[in-house]
Amino acid sequence: MSTATPEVLVHPDADVLAAAAAARLLTRLVDLQSHRSPVHVVLTGGTVGIATLRAVADSPVRDAVDWSGVHLWWGDERFLPAGDADRNETQARAALIDALGDALPAANVHAVPGPSDDVPDGEAAARAYAAELRAHAADDGLAPRFDVLLLGMGPDGHVASLFPERSSLYEANLLVVAEHDSPKPPSERVSLTFPLIRSAREVWVVAAGAEKAPAVARALAGDDVRTTPAAAARGQERTLWLVDVASAAELPGADPAATPPVSGPRRPRSEVDPAWTAVEAYVAPLVAEGADAVAVRTAAADAGLPDIAVSSAQGRLLELLARAVGARRVLEIGTLGGYSTWWLAQAVPADGSVMTLEVSDAHATVARTSLAAAGLQDRVDVVVGPALESLDRLVAAHVAPFDLVFVDADKQQLAAYLDRAVTLSRPGTLLVVDNVVRGGAVVDADHPDDRVQGVRTFLERAAADGRVDGTVVQTVGEKGYDGFALLLVR
Ligand SMILES: O=C1O[C@H](COP(=O)(O)O)[C@@H](O)[C@H](O)[C@H]1O
């Protein structure tokens, strides 16, 4: 089975890391629940793992999750009596599960059994846990398909209770194993094995602290699993390493003298800062992305379209702008999978319209299908072909002016789109143009990227164009650092 190459996100410190991991987990759960139930999450013990659960409990977004559709499992457990303070389960209950109360049914919490008459040793606990996994298996498999599997990592590079140099690292048949004489106390443990861990859709490794820097560097350099077990921690669809500055200090390119910043990102400005994602997750209830919008977004991803559509917060902004100007006729340049189109279509009245121009036949088909499934086929017209040609046809046909034009297409031609868009407008038409800041690159007159140069030409043209009044609003969020140009036609 092939697995996903690790992606690394560095956070300023352990607290921000835990908050961001919690926000990410909550957002993922809400997203997943829009099209799948139940959702299976594997918890981890350890400092960051438990801090993450505490942050989940403290987040108002936790109520956006339907916990009755979430099943919780553990990647490993210390083989200690139920209620022992050193059990990962006990710590997870104190951090999150108790706070969820009746929202999370007890039957959804799948703890590894502790010692009892029926479960005299770790092997018996491992067998019992494997049976529990089988009882919830997907499609006659041996275990549920885990949606997110969280792993902490020790300074020795262990994950779950799979320690360096142990035979359990190579277990190929069992889903769950017992570990005796663990190098980290307590000595008796039970752990999922790598075949099961690596069958998860997404594996997220969380690690913080300078003492973990060597192991983080070895794992991400692809060290031998025998010396750095974390090197084998990978998911089928995504492998995420959520680390702090201190534990990332030995990664290639890291500044060993770096101290965590008081605020702001440490990575290039165009990348996504976890604080931005956390805020986006926090405001998700206000944005209220509906199930139809999630379906449009998911269909685009499933069809393999690039992940360059607007975010839900930006989509909502488009909807609000269109409503604010009372738009009845909207023109969009650049449909992609129809996600921004969906938001714009929410704003126009039932007898209003959104015309959206898309150069790719394949993208247009995805968009049409999704928008029809959302019941918007009568309100949205997807026009296929090079946008400039479509625009020139509209100009030649003297169509009625549009009330709002949203431009999210090839940046090289933005100035030409501006020209056509103004021609197709009336005084008071609002033009919204996406991606005009580009991580700050727009200020670089010698930038080699012709998209940056396309934006610069457009902004210079807009500034000189006596037909519009405008501004640029810089934005941060899950789409990174960018911005919208807003132009009001005089
Ligand atoms: O013993 C364990 O340790 C690891 C990592 O813990 P940390 O305190 O160094 O973050 C944890 O992932 C595992 O679940 C746990 O049993």
Automatic annotation (TrEMBL):
Domain (Glucosamine/galactosamine-6-phosphate isomerase) ranges = 12-241
The domain of life for this entry's organism is Bacteria
**In what pathway does it function?**
Carbohydrate degradation; pentose phosphate pathway; D-ribulose 5-phosphate from D-glucose 6-phosphate (oxidative stage): step 2/3
Instruction: Give the enzyme class.
Output: hydrolase
Give the reaction(s) catalysed: 6-phospho-D-glucono-1,5-lactone + H2O = 6-phospho-D-gluconate + H(+)
Disordered as annotated region, ranges: 252-271
Q: Which residues form a coiled coil?
A: none
Stored Pfam families: Glucosamine_iso, Methyltransf_3
What keywords tag this UniProt record? Hydrolase, Methyltransferase, S-adenosyl-L-methionine, Transferase
What InterPro entries does UniProt report for this protein, alphabetically?
A: 6-phosphogluconolactonase_DevB (IPR005900), 6PGL (IPR039104), Glc/Gal-6P_isomerase (IPR006148), NagB/RpiA_transferase-like (IPR037171), SAM-dependent_MTases_sf (IPR029063), SAM_O-MeTrfase (IPR002935)
- A GO MF label: 6-phosphogluconolactonase activity
| Entry's EC annotation | 3.1.1.31
In terms of PANTHER family, this protein maps to: 6-PHOSPHOGLUCONOLACTONASE (PTHR11054)
Give the family from UniProt.
Answer: Belongs to the glucosamine/galactosamine-6-phosphate isomerase family. 6-phosphogluconolactonase subfamily.
Function according to Swiss-Prot or TrEMBL: Hydrolysis of 6-phosphogluconolactone to 6-phosphogluconate.
This chain's protein is named 6-phosphogluconolactonase
